[in-house]
Amino acid sequence: MKTRIVDSEITLIPYYRNDAVSLPWYQDPDVVKQVDDRDTPYDVDLLHRMYDYLCANGECYYIEYNGTLVGDVSLRNDGEIAIVICKAYQNRHIGRRCVQALLQLAQEKQLRTVKANIYTFNTQSQKMFQSVGFTKTAPEWYEYTL
Asked: pLDDT digit string (tens) for 3-18?
């Protein structure tokens, strides 16, 4: 896995353990609800298990925005994409640009489709994925055909 330049503001950096930065994202109650439909924040053990799983089953990157790590994005080998942007950096089109970059990665991996699991109450993510070209295929699933 290599560093991927998205644009002049965003770089995707291969995952490495960095709990001091990433754990606070997953301890924010609003963010955890958006991405995992959880009412309790992550602890370090759950954070490690999540990242270990994502890295073992695909590619996982930190999102660096103008020199600051602001979230993570992953593309699993089965074509499922997931993204988290910390609350302070949401609504800047960072997610949209990162998803577009991972669609390019999916093409390089010769995947036919990319899918995203988005909870019905997470309208912010639904709109973002649809703006990139994903279509709703089930109540909580969105798909992009390459």
From this structure: 999 999 999 999 999 9
Given a cut of 90, is residue 24 above it in pLDDT?
A: yes
Alpha helices in the chain (DSSP H): 19-25, 29-36, 44-56, 94-108, 123-132
Q: Whole-angstrom Cα distance, residue 40 to residue 43?
A: 9
Q: What is the pTM of this model?
A: 0.95
Please name the residues in contact with 137: beta carbons below 8 A apart, sequence gap of 6 or more. Answer: 115, 143
Residue with tokens 């992550």: 42
pLDDT of residue 35: 86
Q: What's 8-48 look like in SS3?
A: CCEEEEECCCCHHHHHHHCCCHHHHHHHHCCCCCCCHHHHH
For 65, the enclosing helix (H) or strand (E) is strand 58-65
Q: Contact at 8 Å (CB) between 32 and 42?
A: yes
